[in-house]
Amino acid sequence: MSLANLGSHWWVILIIVVLLFGAPKLPALAKSMGQSLRIFKSEIKTGKDEDAAAKPADGAPVAPGDNAPKS
Q1: Residues 11-56: tens digit of each pLDDT
Q2: How many Å from the N-terminal Cα to the C-terminal Cα in the chain?
Q3: Would the pTM of this model clear 0.85, i.e. be above it?
Q4: Pick from 8, 21, 63, 70: most CB atoms within 10 A?
Q5: Disordered: where is this region (predicted)?
Q6: Distance between CA 57 and CA 44 in Å, rounded?
Q7: Confidence of residue 68 (pLDDT cuts 50, 70, 90)
Q8: How far from 38 is each of 2, 29, 41, CA to CA, in Å?
């Protein structure tokens, strides 16, 4: 498969998307995809921040269930 044929596949996919969703709906579809991606990225960042906060100070790995307070 040459690089010239690879580009034609993207055109076919683009035409199918336009036929399925219709040209007037594409801006709204792109906007909702952008918002979803922004939410996804913020959730990943929040998860990383929570993981960093839950990590013990000595850097030892935390096993599941080990973060319960010991009495």
Answers
A1: 899 889 888 888 888 888 889 999 999 999 999 999 888 888 877 6
A2: 65
A3: no
A4: 21
A5: 48-71
A6: 22
A7: low
A8: 35, 14, 5
Tokens 């036929």 correspond to: 19
The type of residue at 71 is S
Lookup: tokens for 49: 């921040």
Q: Which two tokens stand for residue 52?
A: 């960093």
Q: What is the spatial distance between Cα 71 and Cα 65, in angstroms, rounded to a whole number?
A: 15
Element (H, E) at 54: helix 26-54
Question: What is the CA angle 14-40-17, rounded to 5?
Answer: 10
